[in-house]
Amino acid sequence: MGRRGNNCVSVEEMNRQREFIYLVKELNKGKLKKFQLNTYGCQMNENDSERLSGMLNQMGYIETENIGESDLIIYNTCCVRENAELKVYGHLGSLKRLKREKPDMIIAVCGCMTQQKEVVEHIREKYSHVDLIFGTHNLYKFPELLYSALSSGESIVDIWDSYGLVAEDIPIERKDRVKAWVTIMYGCNNFCSYCIVPYVRGRERSRQPERILEEIRELGQEGYKEVTLLGQNVNSYGKDLDTGIGFSDLLREVNKISGIERIRFMTSHPKDLSDDLIAAVRDCEKVCEHIHLPVQAGSSRILKEMNRKYTKEQYLELVDKIKNSINGVALTTDIIVGYPGETEEDFDDTLDVVRKVRFDMAYTFLYSKRTGTPAANKEDQVPEDVKKERFERLIEVQNRISRENNEKLLDEEVEVLVEGVSKTNKNVLSGRTRTNKIVNFKGNEELIGKLVKVRINKIQTWSLEGTVI
Ligand code: 5AD
Ligand code: SF4
Question: What is the mean pLDDT of the chain?
Fold first, then answer.
């Protein structure tokens, strides 16, 4: 066991939860219990869902895709944009009938949505057939909450505003066998004015470095080849601890772990991306040459309104520095279109940044008003049709650039980590380059989990095709 820091949930409490795992297992004894887990949002939610699956497996549940045969249906939710919330409400509404037919079936809602008081009230009022509501800070308490719901037959609501502690040693059942998510810190301190994350995920809390390294060493031993270190802003990793180990130090340590061949990380806030991190990415052979660096907007005026703490010029300078230091680096980004008050001129700045940086890929979002954030109170909201029209223009420019960047790889030899059979075509294998581009190619399934050399012979906007050399 590694050193346990004082920012962790106590060993006693984690043991208590293990007892509830046992109690639920006893309740289910002799019965085949199935769960269906629906995950929305970012990779951190995916990683949380892997923990939920891990706990459920130990409680004797097996996963099913079929809602009709589920004894437990869970929604692990996201609230970053309104659309994600509307989808969940839609699903909850359509479950009303099934719950009437199967009253013993448990419906649970957790994740970022439920950290908002008004959402919990809305669910209790409009979707009273929901049995269990919990949040992001008490995920580790799921065994106890599920046990209460099962044994009392009553609705259980347990949401915490406080978020002081980090829970270690929650069981996990990972989705993938080749690459693994490793959350290194929780929360965000940045309060970008459009974003709800700091309100629902709390302030930054880093995991103890030893615990992270221990988890990754185990992954290496289990045969995992790639890890992605996750946090809302990984660049501020460790600032809340007294270990003296920052993010670039952590990367250097992970780089030494045997078995692991590739290291990725996300997300980096441009204001906190240090020279030391650039050096670590350049020097550590396992750290892939890819940085996800959300710009959000191109106009310095809008960036100031967004509370991003950098200007267009500073962002472009940072990009130049990264490109000059890290050979062949790929940059991807997040962009919001239609932030309140965004003019045509401001939007031109966004297009200008996109053309200058030539991102390999951009995740583009229509601004979505989030109650409780400063931007939601602004009077000068951009009309939907204007947002959509700008969005289309942005996508057109970005798609052309993504394709042109990919074209440079035609006839080139790239290193691919083979992840599995392609999701869209069962006859081909699929993997990624170090720069995170998807490559599809014909090959034997024995190659899964291996690094192979592939010559690229066909280019698409979102993926590449090639043959193994
Ligand atoms: N509207 C639209 N996009 C948003 N994002 C965060 N908040 C909002 C919002 N209110 C985007 C940002 C962030 C990504 C995860 O989601 O681009 O980087
Ligand atoms: Fe949201 Fe900004 Fe924090 Fe990212 S850095 S999670 S956009 S507040």
Answer: 96
Residues of the chain with CATH 3.80.30.20: 179-407
Ligand 2 center from residue 246 Cα (angstroms):
19
Domain with CATH 3.40.50.12160 in the chain: 11-158
pLDDT digits (tens, 9 = 90+) for 243-252: 999 999 999 9
Classify domain 11-158 at the CATH superfamily level: Methylthiotransferase, N-terminal domain (3.40.50.12160)
Please say if the pLDDT value at position 161 is more than 90.
no
CA 260 to chain centre: 20
Nearest to 225 by CA among 452, 453, 468, 450: 450
Ligand nearest to the CA of 294: 1
Confidence of residue 5 (pLDDT cuts 50, 70, 90): low
Q: Is the CB of 336 under 6 A from ligand 1?
A: yes
Q: DSSP letters along 419-439, please?
A: EEE-SS-TTSEEEE-TT--EE
Please give the Cα distance from 124 to 226 (Å, whole number): 41
- What is the whole-number distance in angstroms between the Cα of residue 81 and the centre of ligand 2? 13
**Which CATH code for domain 413-468?**
2.40.50.140
Q: Which residues line ligand 2 (CB under 6 A)?
A: 188, 190-192, 195, 197-198, 232-233, 269
Do 252 and 219 form a contact (C-beta atoms < 8 A)?
no
| Ligand with the closest atom to the CA of 350 | 1
Distance spanning both ends of the chain, measured CA to CA: 43
Q: What is the pLDDT of residues 291-343, one digit of tens each?
A: 999 999 999 999 999 999 999 999 999 999 999 999 999 999 999 999 999 99
Mutate which of 113, 116, 194 for ligand 1? The one with the most ligand atoms within 8 Å of its CB, which is: 194
How many Cβ atoms are within 10 Å of 239's Cβ, its own excluded?
Answer: 14
Instruction: Report the CATH fold assignment for 179-407.
Output: pyruvate-formate lyase- activating enzyme (3.80.30)
